[in-house]
Amino acid sequence: MARRRPLSLQARSLLAASVALAAFLGLTGFALDEAIYNALRSSLQERLQTYLYGYLAASEMNRSGQLQPAEELPPDPRFNRPSSGLYAGVSGEKNSWRSRSAIGKNLPFDNVLPPSNEIKFSGPVDTGSGPIYLVSLGVNWEVPNRRNKVPLTFHVAEDASVLDAELSAFRRTLLVYLGGLGLLLLLLQLLVLRWSLLPLRRVSSDLTKVERGETERLSGRYPLELTGLTTSVNGLIESERDHLKRYRNTLSDLAHSLKTPLAVTRNQLESEPDGDALRGAMMEQVRRMDQIVAYQLSRAATSGQHTFAAPVAIEQHAEEIVMSLEKVYATKNILCEFDIDAKARFYGEQGDLLELLGNLLENAFKWAKHRVLLTVKSIGATQAHRSGLLLCVEDDGPGIPPERIDYLLQRGVRGDERVQGHGIGLSIVQDILKAYRGELKVTQSEMLGGAAFQVRIDRT
């Protein structure tokens, strides 16, 4: 079963924005719908109250206690038009009246309210003629030339369909405007997302050009948020390119260096009759090839600086190296002391750290009389950058004259030809530091009096 392709950043952002926008517009539409419904209901109540007051003002009571409503001049002509949707009526003990529009309608106009002079509004009320909105008012009407009063209840009603039609028209308008606004905002959001993600697409395009060999690194101008990423990627590209170049050079150098010893060996085998002489020549060439291979393999093993390398603790590896060296140089009875910062870390390959420490400590053990000091400190640590490393190996040996330092740091040069070795240890150290953009400084030890090899790898 094929794995589902993950959504792009643009699709994710647009989907999230669409959901948020739909929720916002939905809540906005609901709030506006409730607001307009309440506004239309209040307007309807005020209009029906106006009609009711109009009937109150135009109606008269005769001496016999019979109410005479204003049928000929109603507050609205629809009261005289049958089934117009606007109805009026009066109820009382001896008075019962309906407007012409209410004839044949089953309306709740028989209800009698106490004469409280307070208007009662209700609706929608279900009736046999459909739902209506109803305004009622109970009053005591004075009879001319009589002291008694007649209790009456005035009713004015309107079909709910009138308000529903207004509300439906508003909802359609609201839907059109909110829908149009939603589409416009989504289009705007899409344009904003495309503009915002343009630097990421440019980074992807530039990486494709790097993969195709059209460019060597990411060289465009990127936003501040991407600067750290592009810098790290450029560092990774340069590091990998340096590794590849070093591997190619190492293989080329190894092949070239072995050509001469192999040719000499072949000639000796073909022309040398003396077994002892042949054995000596063969041993000499084997020793020479062993030296070449050891050097080239050490050089190829230099991994160099990795942008995303995990930090490597130093003290444990230093102890393991020193324990091995103490066995090799047991006759010298050398004391190796540590002054290692617990926070110090090497950001690179563990093999590079072992080569670095191994060559420096072995060189110190080789020349020391009785004491060796290893000092490791963490330098330049910040929240934005990982810490650098300051490493120093000192001994109490004869030291190195300042005028011979550059010569002894050359490849294949030994301080004393009588001392066993290939003369490439310090060269390997320099190759490693070159890969890590570090530096090696050789001075005289102020504490022990011998040589001091100080390695510095700045923060990255």
TrEMBL record:
User: Which GO MF terms are attached to this record?
Assistant: ATP binding; phosphorelay sensor kinase activity
What residue stretch is flagged as signal peptide?
1-22
Domain called Histidine kinase: residue spans = 253-460
Which Gene3D superfamilies does the UniProt entry name for this protein?
A: 1.10.287.130, Histidine kinase-like ATPase, C-terminal domain
Q: Which GO terms describe its cellular component?
A: plasma membrane
Q: Which residues cross the membrane?
A: 174-193
Enzyme class name:
transferase
**Where in this chain does the record put each HAMP domain?**
194-245
Catalytic activity from the UniProt record = ATP + protein L-histidine = ADP + protein N-phospho-L-histidine
Q: What is this protein called?
A: histidine kinase
Known EC number: 2.7.13.3
Cellular localisation: Membrane
What keywords would UniProt list here?
Kinase, Membrane, Phosphoprotein, Signal, Transferase, Transmembrane, Transmembrane helix, Two-component regulatory system
A Pfam family the protein falls into: HATPase_c
